[in-house]
Amino acid sequence: MTYSTNKTILFYNENAQDFYDSTINVDMASLYKEFLPLIQPLGHILDAGCGSGRDSNAFLTQGFKVTAIDASAELAVHASKFIGQPVIVTDFQSFNIDEVYDGIWACASMLHIPLSELNQLFIKFSQLLRKQGVFYCSFKYGADSKERNGRFFTDLDELSLHDQLVGSELYIEKSWITTDLRPNRSNEKWLNAILRKA
């Protein structure tokens, strides 16, 4: 892991309760409706960077099988209690499992990966998807890569996301821009994308 990745994980470990409290009740229904209808009933979803466990819980409630992972051990404790099953503590690069998923959900999580490592991560995740599998990801909208408030962020726009998919078997089925769903954050823009494995 890079220094910036380690520092970001440390931030989440030190601020786990605050992050949990500020994200657990955010209404994500508008994003779920873009993703879940594309997953077969009772399908298996990888929640990559599950944070508070909010999204894993929503998927489990709707009958999907979920594997939840997060790099923050402290957040994983909160999330596992909330969803009633273990959360695997691992960073994306170290995650290794003999499983093929119907869908991957990476909501505001891959944005902490340095730009130089993103393409390889998309290639890795594409190998964990079944053919025609669905991949949701979101990034802060823009073209910056820098540290903000103790965490490292890689921002993407439509063109840079497309560039990161080279060699991955993934293509952009849909992309759209939203404002932040958290209170008092409506000035922040997000790039959302539904990717599909060819």
Automatic annotation (TrEMBL):
Residue span(s) of domain Methyltransferase: 45-133
Superkingdom of the organism of origin: Bacteria
CDD domains per UniProt: AdoMet_MTases (cd02440)
SUPFAM superfamilies: S-adenosyl-L-methionine-dependent methyltransferases (SSF53335)
Family matches, as InterPro entries: Methyltransf_25, SAM-dependent_MTases_sf
Keyword Amino-acid biosynthesis appears in the UniProt entry: no
One MF term in the entry's GO annotations: methyltransferase activity
Keywords per UniProt: Methyltransferase, Transferase
GO BP terms in the entry: methylation
Protein name from the UniProt record: Class I SAM-dependent methyltransferase
Originating organism: Leeia speluncae
